[in-house]
Amino acid sequence: LREERFGTDHASLVLPYSNLGMVEQAAGDLSAARDLMHRALVTAETVYESDHPSVAARYWNLGTIEHADGRTVEARELVHRAHTIFQERLGLEHPSTQMCATWLSDHGGQS
Question: Sign of the CA dihedral 21, 102, 71, 89?
Answer without folding.
Answer: positive
